[in-house]
Design brief:
The chain is an alpha+beta fold. Helix content is 16%, strand content 47%.
Amino acid sequence: MRTYNAIDMKGRLFNYNLEVKDFDKGEAITGTVSLEVDDKGTVVDINVFARPTFNNGKRNNTYDILDDMMAGNYHTVTDHGDQADWLAMTGNIDVSYYPAKNGGGDETYGLSRGQRIRGGFINQNKKHEYRNRWTMDLMITQVTEVDADEEKNLPRMARVNGYFIDEYNQRLMEVSFQARKPQAIDYLLGLPVSFEAPYFCSVWGEQQIVKRVVVKKSAFGEDEVKEFDNKSWVITGMSTDPYEFGDEKAISQEKFDEFKKNLTALKEEKSKDADTDEGGDNGLAF
């Protein structure tokens, strides 16, 4: 099956929020590492979880780096500016489901979906390079055009929804991306997509900061204008050759139906946990 799902982030250590926790299999460091991944100041948050050793007993270099961070041996952009340390991180896009606030979220299950980066390995970035890239084998099920909103300073875009394969847990997972360049928007809107037979292909992109303007009208005097930075998952490219949906080398119809059913079971389980207040996921747990 086509299951590629990876992030490749390089830049300066912006900040971190880490702690040591005890689990059934021993202690681990968990939390968030933030990297500044370009010279525009884009900051990417990466969730991390690392044990001191791997299952084979070999020392885990990622754990040691995180341990050094907690000891204060790494400089951050927040505290040291241009003197911050440079790191490289790999991992994948991850999704969690948790109870929606104020009755929002999924209409059927009342769940919200958290789309985030799960870190895998951390290494030194000796060349002091920037990189901001994710790549995924994506089954596109829906492309929706969003008109420009001049008042909020938001240009026209397309919202791209679909699934990726979580092969470890034998299920599909839902993701949502954006397309912002006119050529990308028009191309994606012209694809033959459906929930029954998704358009399956390799896509790639980056996390971008999108500015949003909110104007609060005033009965007298000047209007109140506030500007917010929103972090968006933006598609910047995709393969010209799609995979053949239904082919076993991509994903067979039988596997698609099975994995989709397993996703439904997961959502039902999370919804039940929320109703009984027993272990609802807050979207941050690993």
